[in-house]
């Protein structure tokens, strides 16, 4: 079973959609199987991260802003704006797909694990994510 | 078929569990299919890496210690210890899930590929990993 | 269904094989399912990235050359050449496996998404990639 969800972003940072993923698996009726999450873009990405303290997400966003800053003078791909090539780099450093086993009709996430879209562009975007479950 | 294994860690570094993954696939009876490995934590992660020279694992651990050091003064999430937020960052830079095709009843790893848990915390931890195979 | 493809590389950089992946899924006859791509090496890796402007691939290669340069004096694993341990590091920072949902007999890639082998060694190599589709 497959479904596509859309997430509206408003700037760089992590956007949690654990609830949508859990609901999708529940509605699929799959009791034991595999959930796959795939993002259809190359300037945002996916992460499983801690959803307890919001400072974890802020620090992650800050780390990636520092490791791939906008002012790298050697960049060639600059025509889509100063935040575009750093966005591709941050995407390469994180995930485009996640695979999460399902048991008892739920993704087997750990206690503190949340599923996030990681937006790397400054401008608002509508991001498409494909959810797939097999069982 | 699913199974959960537990790995006891004693500090930062790579812990190989290729043997457990191969044995799980063998016992499942799946001849051709897909093995998925998922770690249920956000301060350790997964890697497929070379298992020939142990210096590869040491150098990998050292690289991540240098790219996400404990003394980053701008970090906000510090209440769980100086090694906790760097652990989340190292986890984001590596993998939470791995998908490995299975043929002839074995994961199709290359000659030098081993499957590792990458522990990012200093204190000993009991880490839970889910193995899932479909065929 | 599974297939193994081989890609001949001639130095560091990104080599697109989206066409081979699309063709594999088409020939499998799977209409809705999941494509998994797995690379059987630890000194090259996989990426889904933009395939519109070739400068994106060049900038990605340059970024990884800068984040894991060959002259890191603390490296221990140097016996396979100065580009080998940086190759393992770049591999750890990117992907060994990719999971892409399939619909209407095609991988659900976004408009600008291409599937790439990311070669991290300087010398020419023959790289083995496993394609797996279930439906």
UniProtKB/TrEMBL annotation, chains A, B, C:
InterPro entries per the UniProt record, alphabetical: UPF0047_YjbQ-like, YjbQ-like_sf
In terms of SUPFAM superfamilies, this protein maps to: YjbQ-like
Q: Which Pfam families match?
A: YjbQ
Judging by the UniProt lineage, the source's domain of life is: Bacteria
Matches recorded under PANTHER family: UNCHARACTERIZED PROTEIN YJBQ-RELATED (PTHR30615), UPF0047 PROTEIN C4A8.02C (PTHR30615:SF8)
Q: Which family does it belong to?
A: Belongs to the UPF0047 family.
Protein name as catalogued: Secondary thiamine-phosphate synthase enzyme YjbQ
């Amino acid at each position: 079973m497959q479904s596509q969800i859309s997430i509206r972003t408003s700037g760089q940072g992590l956007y949690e959609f654990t609830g949508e993923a859990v609901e999708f698996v529940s509605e699929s009726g799959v009791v034991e199987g595999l959930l796959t999450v795939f993002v259809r873009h190359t300037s945002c990405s996916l992460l499983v991260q801690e959803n307890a303290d919001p400072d974890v997400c802020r620090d992650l966003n800050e780390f990636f802003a520092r490791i791939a800053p906008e002012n790298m003078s050697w960049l060639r791909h600059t025509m889509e704006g100063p935040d575009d090539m750093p966005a591709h780099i941050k995407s390469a450093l994180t995930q485009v797909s996640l695979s999460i086993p399902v048991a008892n009709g739920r993704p087997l996430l750990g206690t503190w694990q949340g599923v996030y879209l990681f937006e790397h562009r400054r401008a608002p975007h509508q991001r498409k994510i494909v959810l797939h479950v097999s069982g």
